[in-house]
Design brief:
1 helix, single chain, mainly beta, globular, 15 strands, 226 residues
Amino acid sequence: MIVGMTSSLSRRRLLSHAVAAAGMGLLATGAAATRAAAAAKPSTQAPPVLPTIGQQFTLSCIGFGATLVVDLPPPLPTLNFIGSRVVRVEVGGADFVRLRTVNFAMEAVHPRFGKVTLRLPDIDSSPDSLLQLTPNGLTETWTQAMALTFERSGDVEGPFSYETLEPGKWIANHILFPPPPQEMNPDGSSTGGTKYVLQAPIRYGHDSSEAAQLRGFDVNQGVILD
């Protein structure tokens, strides 16, 4: 069974891109000219709008490269999840709506654990997600509890199931909602859709006892068109 945690857990880091530019005076002049031209030219992009209450959307979900933190020697397992999420638009306020997850499931396969499944818990107590109007578009805060199940652990047959000790939280920025459709690259990773960035590792276990974590579990989501 999977219990305990490693004493030194490797943290997945997001890489930042730094751009070094020479001739800053020329760049500043060019940027000022660009801003002036943009101000003189009227915008043709429609303002963001909130979806209608009662609408329901099915979204494809692709989350590649998540690190599974368990009591194993390095390198820690990496999981590639594929699945779907169904959301229903609920009443919110003047500048936001609530998004209720009515169905969710993702799966990955690993040599040691077999099929690794994420699904809604039997009793989902996580709050509704929020979709808010902002000056830059729409911002979604996806808050979701999800049960984790391993088909096996090494040679020991399962299943082994764990609950989230607190709901996971992701942030996504949209121009429109639902996010555009996505497709899969030859390696199974996503192209298109919208990226949902995990804000903190998801902790799994029973009661207050932690057994595993998912780190770096960013999820691309895109609407599935009828």
